[in-house]
Amino acid sequence: MFLQHLLNGITIGGSYALIALGYTLVYGVLKLINFAHGEIYMIGAYLGFILVSLLPALPPFFQGHLLFFLLIVFLVAAGLCALYGFYLEKVCYRPLRQAPKLTPLISALGASIFFQNFVMLTMGAKDRIFPQTVGMTTYTVAGVTGTPLQLAIILSSVFLMALLWWFINRTRLGVAIKATSTDPLMASLLGINVDTVISVTFMAGSFLAACAGVMIGLYYGTINFTLGYLGGIKAFTAAVLGGIGNVPGAMVGGFLLGIIEALGAGYFSAEYKDVYAFFILIAVLVLRPAGLLGKGVHERA
Amino acid sequence: MSDILTTDNISVAFGGVSALSGVSVEVREGEILSIIGPNGAGKTTFFNAVTGTFPPSAGRVFLEGKEITGKKPHEVARLGLARSFQNLKPFAEMTLLENVLIGRESHAVTGMLATLLRTRAFAADEERQQQKARELLAFVGLERRQESLARNLTYGERKMLEIARALALEPRVLLLDEPVAGMNPTETGFVMELVRKIRTQGITVVMIEHDMRMVMGISDRIYVLDHGELIASGLPHEVRANHRVIEAYLGGGKHAPTH
């Protein structure tokens, strides 16, 4: 039974980690919690829903090559959400760059409410059911039951995280992101356009969140315009758990949170599934505010 | 010699306090120019105003005849004005090589797409940038530590890293903020030699410094700031004999030019 809960936990934890990365990346460069990030994840799920619903209308080629079709769904949804992220920063945060810290936070909440209502008005307030695309065949190995979809979700989240790691550590733009999060002024004095770096950071975070949104939509089958609220706050918890601003921390925090939730739901009570995340959030903030992999808040001289 | 960097009556005010008032400076191409003055005279504020870190509230700044007043720091840096800091700011969690490569960012020729696709042009360019970064580290004497993390460097080594990183921009003018503060005489001698070598590469050097052996030893000309105003300028021996300079240092009781 333990392994079963673990598998479920890892599946959902992968999505938490992907969303958490967006919080942590943006916090890294701007020292701002982008509270509208959960909404980007929700919009990703809706875009995934719209695209998957188009399948019956498409040429039979796509029905025959389902994996290829889903890859396109992911790319389009994530690409569009990257644009959402880009404009979110440009419209809601950039004009407030010099404002007191509380101002962009309020702007974030405003953006979040705007996105929720925008989706509610355009897509309806009722739950949307994802069309059944991937077969629900289950396989049982050593007492653990899983679906091919679960496996695909786990593999894709790991792949996306590896991609991000490569992007940050092995590309010039990634190194520029690292430099900007350490010291934005110094980075700009060395010729790095900090505005570009911030835009790219928002786009990368939104890309990952949208992927998580599509995954969750496919996995649970139903989505709702309030999805981003709970999902966002849980991913935020994961980011804080790992240490906000710390990229590996967000990955570890996401998986850990997913596993704790699954184990808690399995062994204690499934009714309290959502409570565990908040319990962890409080515990981390009280006992270890810097998070598991965080280095303390001493950096600012 | 023509002027490469000029300021025309620049002033900086923090709230009601004037930190710099009406400072006009002409830096000639290829010279080593020092800016001295008691603590709080506005020397670093002058650097901040010129590099766009804290733009001047009045006055104009020209680099190679083009106005750069109010441009953003990264634009100024790309136009050929690099600086080092008095308090050290290397990227602590990066290696020395990475630190210097950041400064090469603006000289990379291949774009984002080429980076993602790892094209041959990108690989060749990447190799060139790495080579250049290694040369710069060797130039400041840090070639054997290129894979160390910057936070593991000694104080003196960090100062050298800062200079290498600023040079990575291939600047026309290099601003050095107290390059030998806290260094022993041997290290100071090394930096003096380094600054001379930088000048022979065609880079103009403007330096804020308190170490008078260094200032008098290598400067072509000296500007003296006190209370945000320019009180003297000229050749080293002229400045040393200037009454107002002696007054500013001794009268203020803070620093003597001979320490």
Task: Please describe what this structure looks like.
The complex is a heterodimer of chains A (301) and B (259). Chain A is mainly alpha-helical and 301 residues long. Chain A has one domain (27-239). Helix content of chain A is 73%, strand content 3%. Chain A has 12 helices and 4 strands; from the N terminus they run αααααβββααααβααα. Chain A has helices at 2-30, 37-53, 60-64, 66-93, 102-123, 148-170, 172-182, 184-189, 194-220, 227-242, 247-267, 273-287, and strands at 128-129, 139-141, 144-146, 222-223. Chain A has a two-stranded antiparallel ribbon. A two-stranded antiparallel sheet of chain A has the order 2-3. In chain A, helix 1 runs antiparallel to helix 9 and helix 11 (247-267) crosses helix 12 (273-287). Chain A is globular and about 55 Å long. The model of chain A has no long low-confidence stretch (mean pLDDT 88). With 259 residues, chain B is of the alpha/beta class. Chain B has 2 domains: 3-88 and 171-252, Rossmann fold, CATH 3.40.50; 91-152, no CATH class. Chain B contains 10 helices and 10 strands. Chain B has helices at 43-51, 73-78, 96-104, 112-117, 120-139, 155-167, 185-200, 212-218, 236-241, 243-252, and strands at residues 3-14, 17-28, 32-36, 58-63, 66-67, 81-83, 173-177, 204-208, 221-226, 229-234. A 6-stranded mixed sheet of chain B has the order 6-7-8-3-9-10, sandwiched between helices. In chain B, strand 9 (221-226) and strand 10 form a beta hairpin. In chain B, helix 3 packs parallel to helix 6. The two termini of chain B are 32 Å apart. The mean pLDDT of chain B is 85. Chain A binds chain B through residues 171-173, 175-176, 178-179, 182-183, 185-194, and chain B through 51, 53, 72-74, 77-78, 82-83, 85, 89, 91-94, 98, 101-103, 105-106, 108, 112, 115-116, 165-166, 168-169.
